[in-house]
Design goal:
Elements: E1 3-12, E2 15-25, E3 30-34, H1 41-49, E4 56-61, E5 64-65, H2 71-78, E6 79-82, H3 94-101, H4 114-120, H5 122-126, H6 137-149, E7 155-158, H7 167-181, E8 185-190, H8 193-199, E9 202-207, E10 210-216, H9 217-222, H10 224-230
Parallel strand pairs: 3-8, 3-9, 6-7, 7-8
Antiparallel strand pairs: 1-2, 1-4, 4-5, 9-10
Helix pairs in contact: 3-6
The structure holds adenosine-5'-triphosphate.
């Protein structure tokens, strides 16, 4: 397994947000974490990367227990998070937003460079000199994902990549996920089932901080009773 969460409990103060989350991802898989608002999707991703360190349980990445490590070290091990609010640096151009994320590592040939990002995603090349703050929501999301790629993640965590985006942009984000899925293991969150099942092979459903269902995409697509029970219909 590339990633394993074993009985992860995470708190915000006294508030018990994750109440024993257990899940696994094999290398190369694209998996979606589904659930309504407040179910604990973001907290699960933040617990993996160490932004909200679990109080109990284990997070194992490529065989190493990481639940007690600081976020910057976990990121350096090869996990990238694209947060829900994207965090594009205002006042920096698209190129500069990518440049600051670039990891200089001796003795390793990086998979991603600004040139490769621009070749693969010409839309970003066209915006290279534009201030990140002036981009549309969809452009910011593309940039946020591209910036995360500059850190050379083997596991990419995407928190609600479609949030607030127009349908035509959602299609582009879907194509981006499909493209990256060929080379990267991906765990993404979503509130509705439609996009998730189109782009993930497998899904977990969270409710009140617990995994309440796990299924292959095809199986969950047919299972409208489970969808109605745990997910928003969109
Ligand atoms: P959303 O779609 O709203 O992002 P989510 O499934 O990602 O939903 P989380 O953001 O992980 O849910 O929230 C899980 C629970 O933790 C919720 O009850 C939420 O109110 C609570 N929570 C989240 N962030 C904080 C915080 N910074 N402080 C206190 N409680 C929080």
């Amino acid at each position: 397994m590339m990633l394993e969460l074993d009985d992860v409990h995470t708190y915000y103060g006294e508030s018990h947000a994750l109440q024993g989350v257990t899940l696994q991802l094999a290398e190369g898989e694209t998996v979606c974490l589904l659930g309504r608002n407040g179910a604990g999707k973001s907290t699960t991703l933040k617990s993996i990367i160490g932004l909200t360190p679990p109080r109990r349980g284990r997070v194992v990445f490529e065989g190493d227990e990481i639940q007690r490590r600081p976020a910057h070290r976990i990121a350096r091990m090869g996990i990238g998070l694209v947060p829900e609010d994207r965090r594009i640096f205002p006042g920096l151009s698209v190129r500069e937003n990518l440049d600051v994320a670039q990891r200089k590592r001796r003795g390793e040939t990086p998979k991603w460079s600004i040139e490769r990002i621009f070749d693969n995603y010409p839309m970003l090349a066209e915006l290279a000199n534009q201030d990140g703050a002036t981009l549309s929501g969809g452009q910011q999301q593309m940039l946020a994902v591209a910036r995360s790629l500059m850190t050379e993640p083997r596991l990419l965590l995407l928190d609600e990549p479609n949030e607030g985006l127009a349908p035509v942009i959602v299609k582009q984000i879907g194509a981006l996920i499909d493209d990256l899925a060929a080379t990267t293991t991906i765990l993404f969150t979503d509130q509705s089932v439609h996009f998730a099942l189109k782009h993930a092979k497998r899904a977990y459903i969270l409710e009140k901080g617990r995994i309440v269902h796990e299924a292959g995409a095809a199986e969950l697509r047919e299972d409208t009773a489970t969808q109605d029970r745990f997910l928003s219909v969109a």
